Predict the 3D structure of the following.
Amino acid sequence: MRRAHQVIGLLFVCLAGTPLTGTALAGESRVEVLPLAGKKLRVDGMLREWPGRMTKLSSRMKGRAGASASGMIGFDKKNVYVAMDVKDSKFVRTRGYGGSEDYASLVLAFPTASGSYKTYEVKLYAGEPGRIGGAVKIGDRKISGAKIVEAPSRGGYVFEASIPWRAFPDARWVRVGLRGALRYSDAGRGIIATSKSRGKAMPRVLLDAEYAIDTGLVQARNLRAEPKFEVFGNVSGSGTWESVAVYDKYLTIAGSQYRRGNQFFFRDLAVDSAHAVKSLKLMELTGDSRKEIVLRLKFTEGPNHRDVLQVLSVPSGSDEPFVALQQELGIYTPDLSIQNKLQIKTGKSLAIIVSQGKVTGVDPKTYDEPKAAGMKSAIMPWSKVEVRTYEWDGDTFSSENDKHWQPKMSRPRRGRRKMTASRSSSSSSTGGSPGSSRRDGPPPPRPPSVDELLDRVYGLYRQDRGLGKSRASFDFVTDVAADQQTERVLVHGKDLVVFGKGYKNGNSYAYTTMGVKEASHIKDVTARDITGDGKAEIIVRGIIHARASKKRGGDVVSRHAFFVYKVSSGGIQRIFAAETGRSLGKNAIIATLRFTKSDNGFDIELHPGRAIGWSRKNYPFPVDRHPYGGLEPLPVPWRELPALHYHYDGGRYVKKSE
């Protein structure tokens, strides 16, 4: 394994568009579903407000029906609507509205917390004009507030019906992941349908943002219509459930209250295929009544692979999940395997526990597998840590109470890295000058050559993000990931973008959106190897603006921020962020940031600098002792602890014990 893996992936938001009819399961039809919010729909039996194409009820469920029918479903926030065109030469209706009469059915199935589905069948009895009115029933009960209106048509009749969402108790908390079908019973002689199944086996009923997933992701990338995994729960704090699903190698989040119900989130998990996503679960791990997204991923390179646990959490006030924990659980080659044990505790005691496990074929004298970057590595058999316990600290999952033991295996001895000669006289292959030897480390940032522009990949990014003619504000090349070739690093708006000839096989890119309000707030971008792995980290300086409270005058507070990003085959991860200054009006505090040499790379130190206009007495903000807004605290000149010291632990920069 010559590439270390980190999964941050790509973020994309798509608006719901025009729905397309498709076939979800072999021999069964997905009913076209129309969003009708904001449209004036009169339930009058005329069908003139219904755009789109009706779905034919082509599956024979029972007997031999003499009728034919087609229909569609609509919805808004209050009601579900059904329109149907029936061809039936003999219409049977009584005031008993029984099973031996002509009636249509809307069958809806809602996902449950256990992973099963609860199915409701709404029977729609069109009336006989001038003689018997229509009825809408669940079981033997008429649905209060429901309505059905019919009208004659050539060879039969048409009808429209509205059913309040409150007729389905589960609709109070979940309106994603629904399954459904339309059926028509021909006076007990036979039943035709769009689907003969029930529950989860029925085709999907696409509401709100699920339209956008289907058209903007599934169909656009020619993916399977059915997700490999789909789970449901409250991940965003909206009070209703979201659908969290995996389509191929893409993770999606959608919900009726999430992103106003008409947008979705997706992330490229940066694995080779859907087979590399081993599991997806929702578990409450932070004690805030929201579910965390728990993934098991398999990263493969040739005959080798690594097993990785990834935990995503959606923070309060945001709708974008972040990687709260990424832990390597196993390393596997044809000759050896290191497999950690995993236990996740929920309920009253929330914890993620990783411990020593099964080891085969490992010889410390010959072991030379690289350490994974961007995550906590697996607990090695020669580590003094026996059990590592992660608990939520308010910002991320941290481990401070590791259980130690006497390892049964000695630590491998690693040799010094050898210098590698340039493989080509082309400067684009190594980042150096023609004919030069590659030094042990990434080259300094410089403008890209013609060969390094990679216009096709750059064009793909611009098209995906809808950038038009806008230009990058920062553009340079250096070695940040993959092999020893250089990668191109750009800043477009608030996006940090990376691609290269040796990165993602030279045909894709990675990006992350930086946490500033405006693109102009990004003041400086450069690169330097500070972790000691031979790859440059991307260093960004920016300003985060926030409005102070009325008590403090309501002026704009400027927080000067320092960010460090690491690039791996999986994407871009922020491994450090700190507040290095703060200003309000003419007053300011400016801290000092230093890199100090460590065993492998550099540690980061934040020292109190100087105050302009502020003192301990008139400083209007509380002194932060813990990260605030995702940034390590600003060391003020009068703080009792004069400096903050951070070191790289293999996954991110963490504060050293004080």
About this structure: The chain has a mean pLDDT of 84. Helices lie at 209-218, 427-430, 455-465. The first helix runs from residue 209 to 218. DSSP finds three helices and 39 strands in the chain.
